[in-house]
Amino acid sequence: MSDSDHEQIPSAPGPSTPLSSSYTYHSKLPTAPGPYILGVDEAGRGPVLGPLVYGVAYCPVAYKEELEQLGFADSKTLTSEVRSSLLSTLDSDPENLAWSVRVISPQAISNGMLRRPPINLNVQSQDATILLIREVIAKGIHLSEVYVDALGSNTTYQAYLSGLFPGIDFTVTNKADSKFKIVGAASVAAKVTRDACLEGWVFEESIAEDGTAVTSGLPETAVCSGYPADPKTQAWLKESIEPTFGFPKLVRFSWTTVKLILDKHAHAVKWTDEGQASLITAFESGRGREKDRCAVAKDLKIISIGEL
């Protein structure tokens, strides 16, 4: 896919714009009367490189028969050329068809998974789905049916979504993108967006504060799938590591694949807390009420005069 192709995909960053934070894109609002059906699917859940993209597509219930004829399917079964053509199809009937994506940056994924307590990928996926549905409803779209590709326990997730959005009939099932054309359309929107983000990635590490380009030594982006088992992905990761600073922001540094490479090829870091040893000694040598007292309290001569 060429740079000109990236520019034609409205849900991807511009050709000179780094993906520095998560964002949401909405196509034009359809004008046909409702109620509407909506499908939800994702692209990029497993890869170690690039964003996770959640997509939704929606159309009037009365448009179902027309939708069946448009060629939407599980995006993984389609060529990139067909997927790009189908995204154009999604934009070809703005009275009836619309779509949105939530692009979750690699940094946001990793920050969530490494924080305490962690926000795992299932929770981040749920949050993206709920955000997209809420924003579509907020635009005045009356949803009657929502179809969602599986995430964790289907029955639990379906009950959870139904509780959040009473009055909407939810169906959460495996391979929803193959069973329901509206989910296939969402799958196409998510996949085309993710591919454009990954193939047109602009490294923040190669841009100075004044916006000028600097030499970063990074290899060209990513002529690979981004999946950990892909030999091209593995080669790209080994070529991209910087022993002191690790990986560029394209990489999800919470992935086990990345941790193993860092352990093997990056410089070891020892975090030193100069007061830690003395605090441990003071705690272990304390007696009675003084046993749990910190060094600051002792230095200030703060003592207990009673008990609650």
Describe what is shown at a glance.
This protein has 308 residues and is of the alpha/beta class. It contains twelve helices and six strands.
Shape: globular
Helix content: 25-40%
Number of helices: 12
Beta-strand residue fraction: 5-15%
Q: What summary fits the major beta sheet?
A: 6 strands, mixed
Order of helices and strands: HEEEHHEHHEHEHHHHHH
Average pLDDT value?
86
The SS-based structural class is alpha/beta
For the biggest β-sheet, the strand order reads 1-4-3-2-5-6
Describe the model.
The structure is a single chain. With 308 residues, the protein is α/β, with parallel strands linked by helices. Helices cover 38% and strands 13% of the residues. The chain has twelve helices and six strands. It has helices at residues 3-7, 64-68, 80-90, 106-114, 121-138, 154-164, 176-179, 181-199, 231-240, 256-265, 276-285, 295-299; strands spanning 23-26, 36-43, 52-60, 98-104, 143-149, 169-173. Strands 1-4-3-2-5-6 form a six-stranded mixed sheet, sandwiched between helices. A hairpin with an 8-residue loop joins strand 2 (36-43) and strand 3. The radius of gyration is 25 Å and the shape is globular.
